[in-house]
Amino acid sequence: MDSSEDAIRFIYTRIKDFKNPEHLEMWAEWAKIQIGYKKPAHALYNAILRRLQKIEKLRGFTLKEKAHLLFTFSVPLSLAIAEELNKENWTYDLDEKQRIKFFTTEEGVVYKAIHTKSEKWFKGVKLNDKQNTSDIDGCGIETARVQDDSHQMDLHDVFDTETIPEQNESENSQKISLHQWILQIEKFANKLQMSEEFQTKAKKAVVVLSETDEIVPYRDFNDIFRVCLRSITRDSQRIEHGPSLNLQKLLMQIGDHLEKSFEYESMRGAMEVIREECEKLGEEVRKISINTLQTKIDAMMSLLSKTWAECV
């Protein structure tokens, strides 16, 4: 079994009861961490997508499970699977892009959805529902106060605090410049002496985005931030060998940076999840390695920025 099959099996055991279109990129990111996939998250996403596009060759899945995977991840129905569904007299319907918008199982379970990019779910939670997305537990990332056994650095030494976004009327219209954000990541990576490969990637992304910036709505930024930040606590350790960050101070400094550099209302979701994670930690001292943090920054930026994902 190759990594994409392994990831699909991992994902399917967790979505088998879901009845809405899920966010495949986020599932790929979470699967990458859980199964120990070494390449970037977008590489796993592409591998999974290729498998789903030729799902008739996927081993170990029933016809119902294959149809459910295609429905859940909004992948067009292949001719081979369509022939199997017709042969078994399944009731189903497709949209104009040949994606399954309706089908019923032999047990009488009905699946029905309209596939749109603007409405996706992750772990059964609607991503554009501000009340619910804070409950998602997921995949990981961010930056801040740096500390190991011999060195401590304030966040203000790492980030500029002049990244002021466009100010509009609502979270839907407010946007963040990824060029400005990645400039901060580049500076952070340099201060922490992250890998040469990672620093080169950040520099390339800065150069490309200086000419054609990517602008992301705050809602999208907050959704990914909420989903990802929690794994920092999951992957932290009481004792960490090598350069590491004090987790509590890391989270507090992330909050300080967001509050000073961006409007609080726009970042309320991100601030809330930081507060929740700090409360969970309490007085317990935990650390996260710089290598792990580097991996998580790469994962988050791959979700946020197409340019970042393509810089290798």
Automatic annotation (TrEMBL):
Residue ranges constituting the SPK domain according to the UniProt record: 8-108
Keywords tagged on the record: Coiled coil
Keyword Nucleotide-binding attached: no
Segments forming a coiled coil: 264-291
Any Pfam family hit: SPK
Domain of life: Eukaryota
Protein name: SPK domain-containing protein
Protein's organism: Caenorhabditis nigoni
